[in-house]
Amino acid sequence: MRAAQMELVDVDEPALVRHEARTEVLDLLLWAVEIGALKDIEAQRIARYYLSASARPEQHHLTTRSSGHEGALLQQHASRAVRTLRTKTDLAQYLAAA
Fold first, then answer.
1. DSSP notation for 62-85
2. Dist. CA 47–CA 93, nearest whole Å
3. CB of 43 closer than 8 Å to CB of 32
4. What pLDDT shows up at residue 88?
5. Contact at 8 Å (CB) between 28 and 37?
6. Could you count the other beta carbons within 10 Å of the beta carbon of residue 6?
7. Which residues, other chains included, contact 24 with Cβ-Cβ below 8 Å and sequence gap of 6+?
8. What separation, in Å, do the N-terminal and C-terminal C-alpha atoms of the chain show?
9. At residue 70, what are phi and psi to the nearest 5 degrees?
10. Distance CA 84, CA 37 (A)
11. Are the C-beta atoms of residues 78 and 45 closer than 8 Å to each other?
């Protein structure tokens, strides 16, 4: 619910299942925003790039090849946001909070 409110996933996203990689990435992004390590827009960029394909089989993974210049920009923005996440957080704190 919170991930949909922050626009990390679509409102009509299929239910997330605990311990799936997709759910764990969303949990990490939500935590990073909560502690102020990431801005909402940075979390959205990471989610948009790395979680671009949902559990719906008709939706394909986003690749830079399939999306051209726009995909390259999205990848660049996501990479910067991940760098911010790495430098501003201690993942041991996340694991302890989880």
1. P-HHHHHHHHHHHHHHHHHHHHHH
2. 21
3. yes
4. 81
5. no
6. 16
7. none
8. 18
9. -60, -40
10. 8
11. yes
What one-character-per-residue DSSP string does 47-58 give?
HHHHT-S-S-TT
Identify which of 3, 12, 6 has the alpha carbon closest to the alpha carbon of residue 59.
Answer: 12
Helix (H) or strand (E) holding 22: helix 21-34
Residue-level pLDDT at 94: 77
Largest CA distance in the chain: 40
The Cα–Cα gap between 72 and 67 comes to 8
Rounded mean pLDDT for each run of 10 residues along the chain, 98 residues in total? 83 75 87 91 87 54 58 79 82 75
The one-letter amino acid at 47: A
Q: What is the pLDDT of residue 65?
A: 55
Cα–Cα nearest to 2, from 40, 38, 55? 40
Residue 12 has what DSSP assignment?
T
